Amino acid sequence: MSDVGKVGFVSLGCPKALVDSERILTQLRTEGYQIEADYQSSDLVIVNTCGFIDSAVEESFDAIGEALHENGRVIVTGCLGAKEGEIEARYPNVLSVTGPQAYEEVMQAVHSHLPPSVKHDPLTDLVPPQGIKLTPRHYAYLKISEGCNHKCSFCIIPSMRGKLVSRSAADVMNEAERLVAAGVKEILVISQDTSAYGVDAKYATSFWNGRPVKAQLKALCEALAELGVWVRLHYVYPYPHVDDIIPLMAENKILPYLDIPFQHANPRVLKAMKRPAASERNLDRIKAWRSVCPDITLRSTFIVGFPGETDAEFEELLDFIREARLDRVGCFQYSPVEGATANALADPVPDEVKEERWHRFMETQAAISADRLAAKVGQRMQVLVDAIEENGNAIARSSADAPEIDGTVIIEGAAGHIEAGKFAEVTVTDSGDYDLWAELVES
Question: Torsion angle of alpha carbons 57, 61, 62, 67, nearest 10°?
Fold first, then answer.
């Protein structure tokens, strides 16, 4: 082994897991470890796993197996790490297994199997103030809490990540300031349940730059708005107090974008899922939000083929999305998750029926999305440029587009005129089912 410990890192799963990876990587660099990009150069490999659905579990198992085959010295962490016995039964040679958010335990395992270098000098081995980030320099995820208090029947996240634990507002804002100082132009606020932020702490007040800020979503959004960057909210449950956030969007303080996982529209299915809110109230809320902020972009996710879902209940879901006319929608076929209470529900939907319903859902939503995007042709908008392609086009995003999950704005012939990581003004010239095409506005 070299004098400087070299660590390879594999990060799987959602943005919340990505933030966990960033935190571990930051600590590794702080302690003088070198991060390697391949198995062969690494003294050991850390695999941060996902364990939410069967396909993600298998992907995580495959990643562990590959790391063991290519390197041989593997530390496992993350959501799948909550199933320590299963991992060790399948891969008895792993060095250590820890669950999600187990930062100290991961570092203890690293210290045990790869002691820190005696040559490490914290005065010269500098780590950026914002920490190590796995996203492009111009945007970053900001996790405001861990865990979740819900008991959705299809989900095992609370058993993996525990109950809601909110960070103090001061801690969140100090991190946000460091990100902006490092050049971040867009902050994506994430957690398991963003709208529940601060409930566990009874909305405790802390001090940021000498002023009190409550651990409460509206107060946090107002503070983040002062940083002068895009602020985008993800994973927001439709609680009544979310209504208080919409005026901030209408006033351009935060992006007019709301990511709300409705999951279904039929009351019986929602009750079986143990989800809050009914579809009638949600439709009324959507209308109210749009009356306050007409430009709001609404994204959501849905599940088709949930155990017991009838043809009529599925049709009710289609009627809901036709009336709601959401801008961005993801849809998943129900998949049993080990440990989820929904596995015991009667009348599982056959796979071929789930597949057929999924296709019908996506076809219905594609038409809605295409129609809503077509209405934007001719509009002028601000976009954030993610990349310049070899063909000279720029790939950008508007306020309606979160990275990797939504559409893009393609600016033709923009090379040499704009840079990745910068804002640009464009005019929309064409639209598709999910993307827009645009040209630069001449300055």
Answer: 140
